[in-house]
Amino acid sequence: xxxxxxxxLVEFVYAEARMLDERRFDDWLNLFMDDAHYWMPLGANHTxxxxxxxLMYEDKLLLRVRIERLAGARTFxxxxxxxxxxxxxxxxxxxxxxxxxxxxxxTAFHYIxxxxxxxxxxxxxxxxxxxAVDSALRIALKRIDLVNADAAFGSINLFM
Amino acid sequence: MNKYRGRPDAVRSLFxxxxxxxxxxxxxxxxxxxxxxxxxxxxVYVGHASQVPNKGDYYTTTVGTQxxxxxxxxxxxxxxxxxRCPHKGTKVAGEVCGNTGKFFRCPYxxxxxxxxxSLLSVPLKKGYDDAAFESFEASRGMAPVPGVHVYRExxxxxxxxxxxxxxxxxxxxLTTIDNMVDRSPEGRLEVAGGVLRYLHHCNWKMLVExxxxxxxxxxxxxxxxxxAVRVWKEAPEGTPKPMAVELYAPFVxxxxxxxxxxxxxWDHGHGHTGVADSxxxxxxxxxxxxxxxxxxxxxxxxxxxxxxxxxxxxYFPNIMVKGPIQTLRRxxxxxxxxxxxxxxxxxxxxxxxxxxxxxxxxxRLVNAPTSVVGHDDLEMYERAQEGLHSxxxxxxxxxxxxxxxxxxxxxxxxxxxxxxxxxxQFRAWVRYMTASMKEERT
Lengths: 160, 442
Hints:
Structural class of chain B: alpha+beta
Strand content of chain A: 35-45%
Strand content of chain B: 15-25%
Shape of chain B: globular
Shape of chain A: globular
Largest interface: A-B, 32 and 45 residues
Radius of gyration of chain B: 23 Å
Largest sheet of chain B: 9 strands, antiparallel
Oligomer: heterodimer
Number of strands of chain B: 21
Number of helices of chain B: 16
C-alpha cells in the first residue's frame, strides 16, 4: 500500500475544498468511498448520526441527488446559483496509521456562501477520515462541526 | 391614523371568502395586532412535558413574541411564566433549558421567585417600606400565564385571562395527538434527537398554509424529490430501496394521489391532510413493532392506530403535527417578514429505535436548513414575501373547490386538494384577531 506523507495529506484537504469552490462536484464526489458519509452533526459532542439529529448525514446516493439537483432546470432555489468560498487553516494530522492506510485530519475553516446580494459566514472544523485505496486517497467520512451548529440558519445550499 | 388598530371592520375585510388581502402577510401593524390579539386569544403550543421531567427543570421559548419559561413546579405541575423579572425587566431564565432548583434567581439583583412565579425574597428589603412594597406590581413576582393546559404531555397556553376553553378550541382535532401518542406501545412520547431551527424571511402564515397545500409538492419539489427518484432509478436492479428514497419519493406523487388523500376540516382553524391515505402510509415495517403494539393494545386497536396515517395536522395558529412520523413543527413569528421554524422529533417510548432513526432522517431530509426539500419551499415563500409588495394585485387566492355552503360546517372530510383548510384558518384568524379588539372612535 502506498503511504502518504503529512504534506500529501494536507494537500488533499486543500484540493478537496478547491473542487467545491470551483463547482467540480462530480470530481468531488469521486473522492468519496462507496460507503462514505458527509456528516454535519447538530452538536460537537454527537457520536450517533442515526439516533441524534444532524443537519446532514448523507451517503453517496444523497450527495449525488444534491449534485444533480444543483444542475436541474427546475431547481428554482438555485436560480441564481449560490457560490462558495473556503478559507482553511493549515490542516493538522490527528492520527496516521500508515500500515492500515488510514488517516485523520482536522481543519479549522471559515466558509462563505453567497447568493444574490446576501453573503453568510460560517465557521467550524472539518474532520477528514481518509483511506488509502490503491495509489490514491479517498474520503471515508467528512465531518463538519460548525461552531454554532445548533443556531437558527437560513438555507445552506452547498457543501462545507 | 391607524389602518387596522382599533378598526375590527377593517381587519374583517382582509378576508373575503376566497381571497386574502396582501397586507395580512406584509403589514407590520397587522403583525403587532396578531401578537396582541391572535396569539393571546388562542391556545398556543409551548413545549412538551418530557422537556422538563424533574422539579425545577425549565425551558425558555416564546409565545407569539412574548418570552416565557415553562417550568416543572415543586408540586410536580407544569407552569408557564412570563420570563421577566418584575424588578427591572431582566429575563430571569437565561439558558434554553436547565434546572433552577426550588427557585429562580434573577442574575441582576438576586431577587428570587418560586417556580410558580411568586416572589420569594428581595435582598436588602429594608430599603423598601413594607406597606408600600406590597402595593407595587413587583411584589407579585414573575407573572404566570393565566391559561395553561397539558394534554397528553403537550403543553399549551392562552395568554389572555378570558377566552375560549381548551376543550372547545381543539375539540376533535386532539385525535391527531392521541394517535401520535398511541403509536408508543407504552402510550408515551419523549422529545428526542434535537430540534432543527430554520430561519425564514417570510410571514409565518405562509408556512401554516403550506402544510395543507397539496398542489405544490409535485411542482416545487420536482427538483429535490423528483431528482431523488430519478437517481434511484439508476441503481442496479435488486438494490434494496433505501429509507431516504422511501421518504422522498411520495413528495412527487400525482395530483390524483393528493386528491384521494383527502383533507378534514375542524372548527377554530384546525384541520389535516391525509384522511384516507397519505405520503406516510407505505413505509417499511420496523421489525418487532407490530408485535409490541398488538401486545399493548390488541390486534384490532393496533390496526386502527397504525392505519390512521394522517399527513399534516395544523393546530391553529402555528404548529403542525405528523403522527405517523412523530414530528411537530412550530412556526414562530418574529416579524411580518421573519419566521423561525423549529422542527421537533419524538421517540415512541418502548418502540424499536428504527422508528426514531426514520423520524430523524425525515426531519433532516425535509426540515433542516440544509434540506433540499426545505430549500424548494423557502425559495417560494421568500419570493412571495417580496412579490406581495407589488401593488399590481392586492389579493391572494384560496378559492380551490370553494363551496359557499362550507361555512359553519365542521369535522368534514373532502377532496385532498381543497383549499378549505386555508379558508378555515383565515376564518379563525378573523375571529381571534377581532375577539378582543375594541373599536376606537376617531
